[in-house]
UniProtKB/TrEMBL annotation, chain A:
<dbReference type="GO" id="GO:0016625">
    <property type="term" value="F:oxidoreductase activity, acting on the aldehyde or oxo group of donors, iron-sulfur protein as acceptor"/>
</dbReference>
<dbReference type="InterPro" id="IPR011766">
    <property type="entry name" value="TPP_enzyme_TPP-bd"/>
</dbReference>
<feature type="domain" description="Thiamine pyrophosphate enzyme TPP-binding">
    <location>
        <begin position="50"/>
        <end position="197"/>
    </location>
</feature>
<dbReference type="GO" id="GO:0030976">
    <property type="term" value="F:thiamine pyrophosphate binding"/>
</dbReference>
<dbReference type="InterPro" id="IPR029061">
    <property type="entry name" value="THDP-binding"/>
</dbReference>
<dbReference type="GO" id="GO:0045333">
    <property type="term" value="P:cellular respiration"/>
</dbReference>
<protein>
    <submittedName>
        <fullName>2-oxoacid:ferredoxin oxidoreductase subunit beta</fullName>
    </submittedName>
</protein>
From TrEMBL, chain B:
<dbReference type="InterPro" id="IPR002880">
    <property type="entry name" value="Pyrv_Fd/Flavodoxin_OxRdtase_N"/>
</dbReference>
<dbReference type="GO" id="GO:0016491">
    <property type="term" value="F:oxidoreductase activity"/>
</dbReference>
<dbReference type="GO" id="GO:0006979">
    <property type="term" value="P:response to oxidative stress"/>
</dbReference>
<feature type="domain" description="Pyruvate:ferredoxin oxidoreductase core">
    <location>
        <begin position="278"/>
        <end position="370"/>
    </location>
</feature>
<feature type="domain" description="Pyruvate flavodoxin/ferredoxin oxidoreductase pyrimidine binding">
    <location>
        <begin position="20"/>
        <end position="245"/>
    </location>
</feature>
<dbReference type="InterPro" id="IPR033412">
    <property type="entry name" value="PFOR_II"/>
</dbReference>
<dbReference type="InterPro" id="IPR029061">
    <property type="entry name" value="THDP-binding"/>
</dbReference>
UniProtKB/TrEMBL annotation, chain C:
<dbReference type="Pfam" id="PF01558">
    <property type="entry name" value="POR"/>
</dbReference>
<dbReference type="InterPro" id="IPR052554">
    <property type="entry name" value="2-oxoglutarate_synth_KorC"/>
</dbReference>
<dbReference type="InterPro" id="IPR002869">
    <property type="entry name" value="Pyrv_flavodox_OxRed_cen"/>
</dbReference>
<protein>
    <submittedName>
        <fullName>2-oxoglutarate ferredoxin oxidoreductase subunit gamma</fullName>
    </submittedName>
</protein>
<dbReference type="GO" id="GO:0016903">
    <property type="term" value="F:oxidoreductase activity, acting on the aldehyde or oxo group of donors"/>
</dbReference>
<dbReference type="InterPro" id="IPR019752">
    <property type="entry name" value="Pyrv/ketoisovalerate_OxRed_cat"/>
</dbReference>
<feature type="domain" description="Pyruvate/ketoisovalerate oxidoreductase catalytic">
    <location>
        <begin position="13"/>
        <end position="174"/>
    </location>
</feature>
Amino acid sequence: MFPYSKYLRTNRLPHIWCTGCGCGIILKAMLRAVDRSGIDRNTLIFVSGIGCSSRTPGYIDFDTLHTTHGRALAFATGIKLAKPEMKVIVLTGDGDACAIGGNHFIHAARRNLDLTVILYNNRIYGMTGGQPSPTTPYGEKGTTAPYGSIEPSFDVCRLAAAAGAVFVARSTCYHATQLDKLILKAMNIKGFSLVEILSPCPTYYAHLNRLGTSLDLLMGYKRNSIPVEKARRLDPSELKDKIVTGVIYKTERPEYFEEYHKLQQGITENGRLR
Amino acid sequence: MNRNQLNIRLMSGNEACAEAALIAGMRFFAGYPITPSTEIAEILSRRLPKVKGVFIQMEDEIASMASVIGASLAGVKSMTATSGPGFSLMQENIGFAIMAEIPCVVVNVQRGGPSTGLPTNPAQGDVMQARWGTHGDHPAIVVAPGTVNQVFEWTIKAFNLSEYYRIPVIMLLDEIVSHINEKVILPDPSSLAIINRKHTTKMPGEYIPYQNNANMVPEFIEFGLGYHYHVTGLSHDESGFPTNTPGIVNKLIRRLNDKIEKHRHQIIKLKTEFVDDADTFIIAYGSTARSAHFVARMNRAKGIKIGFIQPLVLWPFPGKEIADIVKNAKSIIVPEMNLGQLSHEIECACARPVISVNRVDGNMITPEDILERL
Amino acid sequence: MSFRYEIRLSGSGGQGLVLAGQILAEAAAIYDGKNATQSQSYGPEARGGSSRSEVIISDEEIDYPKAVSIDLLLCFTQEAWNKYGRDLKPGGILIIDSDFVTEPKDRQGAVYALPIAAMAEKAIGRSLVANIVALGLITGITGIVTKESMETAIQSRVPKGTEKINLKAFGCGFDKAIELKTN
């Protein structure tokens, strides 16, 4: 049994998440990854926005910052630039990162600042009671989409890759052990890394869309997931409604602070680069 | 000759603000271009890398304010500068900084509003927004210098107040004082009092991040030193964790407000001239104080008993102090480049009507505007 | 008794009037040891539009920084003259670029109508330095700032590498002013 309590603020438990919520699965995978990384926990800072997922930092024993809705990446940018030696992990949700924080998300990716983003995607606003988010699939219901959403949804991984992220991965709460590995890989990347994790919301998403229990959602993830290596061999039409898992995209680009540090090092008295 | 090496320099308000911030120890600036504040960002983008500081142009003013708070929480004195539309966008995170007690300085170079308004013209329409722009009952420290020398002095004071009280301090400039070039005598930096936030001497495990103490300002420790504490914009207890418990929330909100209100005498500052025997007073702030001073000076030369009062700190509002000076006045004139935002406060504080001289056309209040009402 | 000397430099955006005002103010305030302010009003255009830059020089601290009663007005464009001409006090000095501004009739006070941009073009090969030629004229005509202080201020304010041509432009205006005054 992994000693989770070593990393938990046990006096803050019980948590506020619903029975069957995926947040706990992600939290545990993240702690396993942190443990395996061997990183000095005093150099880890967790930053979140607002929403169910963003309550995670309150339960884990690190320096933790719970910010305003959508703005976690912008707060994290300030922390990372002020203390580049820190490892900053941003915990966010689909509404937090893709709707209200969408602009910060694409620009943080574009800068390629060394941040790791763990995006809990439950395809709905849970904290406010079940409204559709930018990742709610077309036709599915939310309390403000009573006839089904008429909007197409974002592919978060494609968005991040297009914006400039150097590591983009996806998995689901069904694939709990894969999560550890992907989070660890993301943490070891120098640059903007994203792990999108499909996460069940039984209370609102499953309920409003008559999708059964949390277990039914998890089994759905199992059925519909295709490893990225296999997906690459399939015709795009065969990937409709599928969840492609694994390391979706990986590249190398100069990291933001490394570039900025050159300015700090290279500038001479007369203001010109050496 | 390199004029940057002189201690007497011709400088604009925006230049003085950037220079003074560096002297105050500011090493992180995040901002978004907006007229008429942009020169502050331009100067700091050149200067900060040279002193191992960080300048970043963010994607908007929301992100600018957020990253300023993040950097300050990591222990670095931080600042942003903007104008009306950007100041509106910053309000939510200014509230976060007030709630989480993160020091920082927010410069708002006022231009004509509302909305996009008059980007290149001066105004003083953000006096109430600076006080009440973010939601909820909250404290505020707002300073409003009117000359380039005052901008220099009050930029440093803004950082000092912010660090001491752990609160975002708002510096209201206007297009006039930002862009005017005038003579500044730069003090020897070693002669300046620079205040830094009080760091805790407690060890991790003993440290209680929002523990009340005699001056109502909790001790600070930056992130990354092994203290493992939690910071949130939710109502929280002394340990920093969210709570809904009425008694604890009540204590928090009252302490946040009291830490400023109970220290108001240490924060507020009035500049006065010709007040001792005056029977008529002109009260003005920011660049309007320049017109007011001109009128007071000219009329004194003619033997008219006119006094000049310039509040350099607008919030906490120096109402009692002003009322005390003007208690025997025959008339009180309050010129401002808005429709009477501060004159209303002065009327309330002095419990009597004042003559409000207003302009909202993008022009500075002229001496004639004031003379007409004398 | 204190003195207050008000100068307005007017024309269109991009003619370097703000820089010219800053040089004048720096010379007066820093190198001549007086007090000076330079302020401007501008529109959204980076180039074109009407632009004005005002310099107040005084021996005491300057509170109100805008012109109240203009002692010297420089106009580079007809539009600037039409807009700002009436603020020149009776007896105040007017300097116009005669290629662009029609010389007003019946003015009380000195009028210097000179082809300033053309002078710059002829002396330096660049009409762009007309602003600095105008500073030479103002210095020579009024003596409100010293020649030496102006030369120091020009060297400190103009872009690096252009000091020489700007000093030459200043000298061109200054010499012309002295020539006009002695004739």
